[in-house]
Amino acid sequence: MADALVSVVLEQLSSIIIQEVQREVRLVVGVENEVKKLTSNFQAIQAVFADAEERQLKDQLVKHWLDQLKDVSYDMDDILDEWGTAIAKSQSKVNEHPRKNTRKVCSFMIFSCFRFREVGLRRDIALKIKELNERIDGIVIEKNKFHFKSSEVVIKQHDHRKTVSFIDVAEVKGRETDKGRVKKMLLSESSQGPALRTISLVGMGGIGKTTLAQLVYNDHEVENHFDKRIWVCVSDPFDETKIAKAILEALKGSASDLIELQALLENIQPLITGKKFLLVLDDVWNEDSIKWEQLRNSLKCGCLPGSSILVTTRKRNVANCMGSSSSTDILELGLLSTDECWSLFSHLAFFDENSGERGNLEDIGRKIAAKCKGLPLAVKCLGSLLRFKSRIEDWESVLNSHVWEIKEAESNLLAPLWLSYHDLPSEMRPCFLYCAVFPKDFTFERDTLIKLWMAQGFLRETRNKEMELMGRECFEALAARSFFQDFEKDEDDGSIYACKMHDMVHDFAQNLTKNECFNVDIDGPTESKIDSFSRDARHSMVVFRNDETNQLPATIHSFKKLRSLIVDGHHFSLMNAALPNLITNLSCLKTLKLSRCGIEEVPSNIGKLIHLRHVDLSWNKIKELPEEMCELYNMLTLDVSRCKKLERLPDNIGRLVKLRHLSVLNLQFVKMRGVEGLSSLRELDDFHVSGSDKESNIGDLRNLNYLQGSLTISWLGDVKNPDEVKKAELKSKKHLTGLGLWFGSRTNREKINDDEVLEALEPPPNIYSLTIRYYQGVILLRVFPGWINRLRVVTLWEWIKIENLPPLGKLPSLEELSLYGMGCVGRVGREFLGLGVDNDLSIGEMTSSSSSSNTIIVFPKLKSLSFFDMEKWEEWEGGEGGNKDKTNISISTIMLSLRSLKIIDCPKVKALPDYVLQSTTLEKLVILHSPIIGAQFKAGGKGWPNASHTPNITVIL
């Protein structure tokens, strides 16, 4: 992280100097020279950092020098943060208007006192800068002893492993399924396919990509299928001339003295014309398609269809760059199974010994193989290491040891992981290393991780790109480079929202962050374990595993340099008594995550944590937050969701002008005032409209134009005047994609109805998800403007007065519809499909291009339909007891894309309509606690023949 820290310090210095000049506030005497000296020293260090980072792997003195640099950089970052905060607060005090009931002379005295205290603070900062400059001087002097090369002359010389095509097939265990899949891709020929197909094997370092490519390359069927086979080890950098020369040498036996790409390609072309060839490009890192384009175009000319290029790479972006654009051309290698790991390990560790000679080693060996978590490189490394060791003590030492403590194994494991790490852009490296704070096998969520990166200053916002977007790009880059695994993906857009990290990758990250990050499980007395960590640690996560352990270990108070404290209390930890002292001692905190810790009161001294940027107090018993929290000027994220006793936020919450994420989602509604000052907000999950002028009014949303994601506006029933809704200016929230409208309470309302409120609403233009709850109007689609055409997800909840469902079948983009608690609906018919409504209510172009231009397509894109808790619903028109002719519409034009239907807690509904029964797309039918219709779809029931083609049917009466 040292490189990133040095960059942050230099950026902070530049920013502060600009602020000082702009605000015409003089620096304390002597500080100007100190700042110039500090900047010069850091720039000199930055110039040699690339060389130092590589040399630390083999030189402990260099590693120690970098550790010293990190320590002083952390301290300097804190001081500059303190300085910048003081400048910003000073400016806010200058711009602050005194209260109407305060005399001017009083305001002048308060401001004068503030300025006096500020001078004292600046002197303290000046002394700290001078002291740190002395430390930097020592580091610079020591730097000169190492004779580092500057970044201008450093040439990357990585130990990329050179590969060849030969392999002993008998030595390979596992990958039979993957081999079959790759062979099928290579041997299948299609007249419609490309003349030259590119297939990519993607996976983390050491997972077996090269081995699989070798297996396929040497397969007898593959050998006979292709006229020519060529193997090229590419590595980094990607040199198209060298690759062309290697191809020519493989085809001709020599490349003579040719050195120009054009000449090489001219010699290659006649050798592949009319031939079907297989080219393996092993270990490709290049993401520049232009470098590959000329070579690929030359290879395409004249070759027979069915020719293929097989690429191995660690990065999915490379696969796309090389031409594997579809998922059918990309094979992401998974980990070996437990049995495959053991087969490979035992083959290497025991060699030719029979099971009787293995003795007591086999049980230990199985545990060691399992420890490798399916990574072939680790299995091969440890298996080979133990081949010539026969003592139980040696095997137990490997089993119980941290893998990086096994010197013989470290070099073999470190090299491939280091290559992947060093390939990362420098700004992404600290984001990867920060993951070392989490325990092994921890599932971390993308959005939470991005917020933690933001809090540490790893994501620097630019004019054209926000921090959140940069964080998402970084997360996706780490995932694409196989640093993450076990992905959990969003069903709608396929994006990754949660994942894990392989144990070996986690160990690697921890190895690079020794003395910086530590995590600990609390499961009984653990003081000695915590006490063993360095007092200079910067990031820590504590996880409570035992419900009998309910106190945070006292030792944690001594880690005074902590910047991150993440505690997962699992609802068991009670730390109310310890919290005030904890906050006092950990004054450098930027992240304080105390979820599920049984906290009842937040101490007022939290307002002194001036560096704090991320506070997560979710799932606690907090009743109120102290006003002092509003002094946390640098706050970016505040999460108090699921604090069911919390009723309101502090009155001066609007002072947190940098706040970007505010989560208040709760079992009850949290009141807030002053939210109009939070103009930097990107996330606000719930806004409670109050019936009181002294609390939150919907008009307070007017300035929050950066809001993203979903927003729920609760208790719209308390709106006094429809004009208040217009003041929210929701139409300006163009980044919102989801909107929830909860009407609920109707206190202090006499003549205003829900239709008036809804009609006054000017919703965001780009939302695709809409939820409306507790609505008591009579909805007309004319209430909504053209934005409703974009709706893909609609949820209607507890409309207690409505008897007929709205004409939702007319929504052209609707994919998911859920209806809850429509207690007065007895029949679902034509109006639901959008038939028989006035022409002026039609939405979008609803005609098909089939035989008749007047053919209406109803629910054209609907994939999921759910009905919940509709106690009076009896008839679904078009089913038994209904007359299909009444609909006057062809069944083939209704719900053409329906995949899933759920009917839950609907006791009176009698039958499904014919357009559902005869659906050829329905894949899932769920009927729960709806006995009449449920009996029909039990196996053997009268409705079974009509739905037996549906592969997944669940019925519980």
From TrEMBL:
Domain Disease resistance protein winged helix positions: 437-509
InterPro entries given in the database record: Apaf_helical, Leu-rich_rpt, Leu-rich_rpt_typical-subtyp, LRR_dom_sf, LRR_R13L1-DRL21, NB-ARC, P-loop_NTPase, RX-like_CC
Give GO terms: molecular function aspect only. ADP binding; ATP binding
User: Does the keyword section mention Nucleotide-binding?
Assistant: yes
A biological process term (GO) from this entry: response to other organism
Q: Which UniProt keywords apply?
A: ATP-binding, Leucine-rich repeat, Nucleotide-binding, Plant defense, Repeat
Pfam families hit by this protein: LRR_R13L1-DRL21, NB-ARC, Rx_N, WHD_DRP
Sequence ranges assigned to domain NB-ARC in this UniProt record: 176-350
Family matches, as PANTHER family: NB-ARC DOMAIN-CONTAINING PROTEIN, PLANT BROAD-SPECTRUM MILDEW RESISTANCE PROTEIN RPW8
Name of this protein: Disease resistance protein RGA3
Q: What species is this protein from? A: Populus alba x Populus x berolinensis
